[in-house]
Specification:
The complex is a heterodimer.
Chain A lengths: L18 H20 L16 H4 L3 H24 E2 L14
Chain B lengths: L1 H4 L2 H14 L7 H20 L4 E8 L2 E8 L1 H20 L7 H18 L3 H20 L4 H32 L5 H5 L1 H6 L5 H16 L7 H6 L5 H9 L1 H12 L5 H19 L3 H22 L2 H32 L15 H14 L6 H15 L3 H27 L13 H27 L4 H4 L12 H24 L9 E2 L4 H44 L11 H23 L1
Antiparallel strand pairs in B: 1-2
The chains are: A mainly alpha, B mainly alpha.
Chain lengths: 101, 594
């Protein structure tokens, strides 16, 4: 069912194969993010919640900060979860008598 | 009779059985496939001509059962289930064997039976049929792992069925009649009466039965365990029906049940942590499914018209975009043989069309403006804001950033980009691409309809299908900007973590989840009980054997040829003993008279 065909397109070079271009994508993302952040200067949001002095959904830069910090901490927390939860791939397949790890 | 046979559930179920039974020489494969696709198309067309109301009622054991009850809540699920059956069937034509689409359409029929059921007994019947037919779609992978996962899956589905049955029976005991539509709709009332009466217990059992299939926390692991073990096509069918008719059942029976808010919030949050460290990309999608179901459960818990609309709309959208993502990963599985993030990468070179379609699915699930979840999840988020659930809103916002992280970025990134793994394969088969294009087009349409309404005044056919009238503006400046900010900065976090090397590498591994309790702890307990039972049995057997041997020996001693009772006796001694007996008898006789 699998159709491995290593090297068939091996000669063809793609734009993303060049390391410098990956960096370009990263910098483009930063530029786009700066633009989205700047958008907060140009319109007025109505705060629905009083919490945090109305900053939560009405203040400058709340969504960017929350999105960045939330995603960052999510990954770091998940990484720590591996210490407790990760097992080898055949954990459940191993014979019962010798299976505990 | 035609009303029964041509009702959506029976038409799909019986139709697929007839097609499966037809001999190959009578029905060539292409004709069979054409007929199979015609089933959901004709069924939906016929359904569309029906007005709201009851159809196909029948008497059974003195109770009136309703096979088809159409109301605005069931109607939208009927539409999407037909679409899912159609798309799933097209997708599954990549294999010559028609077993999967036939079972898939049958399973779709049973799911239609659940959402159209006009009473709890009919609901229960289709609830069970769906459980069994969907288990076949796990087993069809024909691997050892799939066999085990399918068995565990079926076991959990049966637990849900038993809970439901127990609830219905208790409810019948309480109300003194067959629990019909009125009871079905009033389960919230029963649950909230606060007493310890049977009706409360009944509603609790039914709540758990629905909750198990909706993948409530700790009851969710059957989904994570089984769906990724199925075939590419099997997972597409599985992802569409069971969890969504559970959402329907919750929306029908428990709207506004406040427990659902926090159950749902937990469901949106915890799976994203698992999804980040999961290596099997279809298992990542299974976690992401639990997360999306969480949004729907929250919507049902909030219970306002806007929130219920949001929950139902999101269920509709999820079937399409989650189906699309499962199809894209299924295509990778089919071509490469596995979907381990640790061993993939660079596949955009070999599968550019699949890559593009996968990105549409990723944008849809992440709720990017112009894509479907933006037009559905926003309803739930806004409903939470209007009811001023601040902490809930923060959790949902975090979960939204997390969805983009694990489903929106991780899936396409590790499969199609990242480091070039060196794997070169063919593009996905044509049937797969056609099905993915259909799902992608529908996902984009849902996202674009509100914009067409805003700009051109075109009525939004999707919102008109929702159970309540929609008075909600999706594309406001605030919505578009804040959502884009959240997502793009979440992307920046991902890119930063990748570039700094902080991002945890994809590793070949399994991560323990709630199923560990029955796959390890439960198994250990079972082993212990079984060992004890065997020991007890052996001990009992040995004791019984010893006793039997002793009894036999005693009998042998007394009754054997040399035994006291087995010997030959003199006639005289017999006469003596008879005389003694008679004398004793006389003595007793006189004593009694005296």
């Amino acid at each position: 069912m699998a159709h491995h065909d290593h090297g068939k397109h091996g000669g063809k070079s793609y734009w993303l194969d060049r390391k410098g271009n990956v960096a370009k994508v990263f910098y483009a993302l930063i530029a786009v993010d700066v633009l989205w952040l700047a958008a907060d200067f140009f319109y007025k949001k109505k705060a629905e919640f009083d919490a945090w002095g109305g900053w939560a959904d009405g203040g400058f830069g709340f969504y960017p900060v929350y999105g960045f910090v939330g995603a960052f901490l999510l990954v770091l927390a998940a990484k720590q979860m591996r210490r407790v939860l990760m097992r080898s791939e055949d954990y459940y397949e191993r014979r019962r008598d010798g299976g505990a790890s | 009779m035609a009303e029964f046979l041509l009702s959506p559930p029976l038409l799909l179920m019986l139709g697929s059985v007839v097609l499966a039974a037809a001999p190959r020489n009578v029905l060539p494969r292409t004709v069979l496939r054409a007929l199979l696709l015609a089933l959901p198309v004709y069924s939906l067309w016929r359904f569309w001509g029906l007005d709201l109301g009851d159809y196909a009622q029948f008497e059974l054991f003195g109770q009136t059962l309703t096979l088809v009850r159409i109301d605005p809540l069931s109607r939208i699920f009927v539409v999407i289930f037909h679409l899912a059956a159609l798309i799933g069937s097209v997708y599954s034509f990549y294999v010559k064997d028609n077993f999967q689409p036939l079972v898939g359409v049958f399973y779709a029929g049973s799911a239609l039976g659940v959402v159209l059921a006009g009473d709890l007994w009919t609901l229960f019947l289709f609830w069970e049929v769906a459980a069994v037919s969907s288990a076949l779609l796990v087993w069809v992978r024909r691997s050892g792992r799939a066999a085990g996962a399918g068995l565990r899956y079926l076991g959990m589905q049966m637990v849900s069925g038993v809970l439901l049955l127990a609830g219905i029976v208790l409810l019948r005991h309480e109300v003194g009649a067959a629990p019909g539509w009125a009871e079905f709709r009033n389960l919230t009332g029963f649950l909230e009466d606060g007493g310890l009466g049977f009706s409360n217990l009944a509603a609790t059992l039914i709540f758990l039965a629905f909750g198990l299939k909706a993948a409530f926390p700790l009851l969710h692991s059957w989904l994570i365990d089984a769906y990724p073990e199925s075939t590419p096509a099997g997972a597409v069918f599985l992802s569409a029906f069971t969890t969504k008719f559970a959402i329907y059942a919750l929306a029908r029976a428990f709207p506004g049940q406040s427990e659902l808010i926090w159950i749902g919030a937990l469901m949106t949050a915890f799976p994203i942590f698992f999804a980040v460290i999961e290596n099997d990309l279809r298992r990542v999608l299974a976690y992401s499914m639990t997360n999306q179901l969480g949004f729907m459960v929250v919507g049902i818990g909030i219970g306002t018209e806007l929130a219920i609309n949001g929950a139902v709309a999101h269920a509709f959208a999820d079937i399409l975009f989650k189906g699309l993502l499962f199809m894209a990963m299924g295509a990778v599985l089919y071509r490469v043989g596995h979907v381990n993030g640790s061993d993939l990468g660079g596949l955009y070179k070999s599968m550019p069309i699949t890559t593009g379609l996968c990105i549409v699915g990723a944008a849809s699930i992440s709720a990017f403006p112009l894509f479907s979840a933006f037009a559905t999840k926003s309803l739930i988020m806004s409903a939470a804001v209007y009811k001023e659930y601040f902490w809930l809103w923060l959790v949902l916002l975090f979960a939204s950033a997390g969805v983009f992280h694990h489903a929106g970025i991780k899936i396409p990134f590790f499969a199609f980009f990242h480091h070039d793994s060196g794997i070169r394969c063919k593009e996905a088969p044509r049937s797969m691409i056609v099905a993915m294009v259909l799902a992608a087009a529908a996902s984009m349409a849902i996202g674009l309809f509100p914009l067409a309404e805003l700009w051109f005044g075109v009525a939004n056919p999707f919102y008109e299908l929702l159970p309540y009238p929609v008075d909600y503006a999706v594309y406001t400046k605030t919505h578009v900007i804040t959502q884009s900010q959240l997502l793009f900065f979440s992307a920046l976090a991902f890119a930063t973590l990748m570039r700094t090397g902080l991002y945890p590498p994809e590793l070949r591994s399994v991560n323990l989840d709630a199923d560990w309790f029955y796959r390890r702890v439960g198994l250990r307990i079972w082993d212990g009980v079984a060992t004890a039972f065997v020991a007890l049995h052996r001990a009992g057997y040995a004791t019984a054997g010893r006793l039997a041997a002793t009894a036999l020996e005693t009998a042998q001693r007394h009754l054997g040829p040399q035994g006291f009772l087995g010997r030959s006796w003199l006639t005289a001694s017999m006469a003596l003993w008879v005389a003694v007996l008679l004398a004793a008898y006389l003595v007793v006789f006189y004593w009694r008279l005296g």
